[in-house]
Amino acid sequence: MKHIAKIILIFLVFSHIKTNAQFSKTIDFDTEHLKKGSIVYKNLKNKYDFILSYSVSTGWRIGDTASFDILARKNKTWKKILLKCSIRNPSGIAKIEVTKFEKQKAEQLIAQLSRLGFWSLNNDSLNIKEIKPKIPSENFVKKDTVVIVTDRIRRYSIVDGSSYRFEIIKKNAVNVYHCESPESYLRVFPEIKSTVVFIKAKDAFEKAIKINQ
Question: Which pTM was predicted?
Answer without folding.
Answer: 0.76
